[in-house]
Amino acid sequence: MEKKTALYEMHEKCGGKIVPFAGYLLPVQYPKGILHEHRTVREHVGMFDVSHMGEFIMKGKDALANLNNLLTNSFTTMKDGFVRYTIMCYPDGTTVDDLLVYKRKDEDYLLVVNASNCEKDFRWMQEHLFGEVEFENISDQVSQIALQGPEAVSIIEQFTDDIPAKNYSFRDNVSIGGYNVLLSRTGYTGEDGFELYCRNEDVAALWQLLLDKGVEPCGLGARDTLRLEAGMPLYGHELSDAIKPSESALSFFIKLDKDFIGKEELAKTPERKRIGLILTDRGIAREHCPVFQGEKEVGFVTSGTFSPTLNKAVAMAIVSVEAAEENEFEIEVRGRHLKAEKTALPFYKRNK
Q: What is the rounded CA–CA span in Å between residue 278 and residue 284?
């Protein structure tokens, strides 16, 4: 049975269309629709309930050593108050999950994982811990609102001047309307913005504060079109237990100058590569659609949608390294072969 976040009643009050997602009941859209919500985030500011995400605490003398062993990125030189994206792999190099690591201080880290993988991730990490380390799943105690868009800063400035200045940095114990928040300069839309972590008891009041400032709520539909335009991977699509991060254009987050689970496999030259495609024929490619060059099947679509910003159908695909050198492809959609052209990722990049 699906869980409800602490904002469930607010979603109903705002007219959200509720659907099951990652074990939760969440809004896929609100009455004005996905296209409106997408453009609101690109042009103004919107907010999402992302309380379904999982949160772990890792503390202790050997916390850093455990993170470096479990995760592909390196945390040795990480400074307090910063956030780092990383990937967790199986010994064969495929993906357990992708996640964010927050360094509060030495020997004290917050890990944020994907909702659908929360229990699996916790078990995997627990099974591989060593030394002096405390490890706790606090997911059920934490709610999260993502405030995203070019006007996000001006909204937060109305509550506090204690704002993280740099992307992938955060401020802890920030007061927003009298409520204690971890304020993180992160997001999953390609826009500037924040993620606000708070107690379950406080999240409905924070949501209402933002509504009162004119911030519109947005659902899962717009969250997906926004992240896809920004070329951001989604677990189960661009990463999975069958896809290595080295195959998904994420080698920047793989640090081979240290030891970690899966390193031996990720050190090998990948045989596949993630690319961006723009469809030139009419139609929309969805995940699992086969990708061809001529008569030869060379890969598959991992995510596809209509891009409201580009006004074109776009897709990300995993194809052979050889095929990735070419520019013209065909995607099989419901028995038809639609022409597509390779394009650089991300499809959309905001003006900074």
A: 10
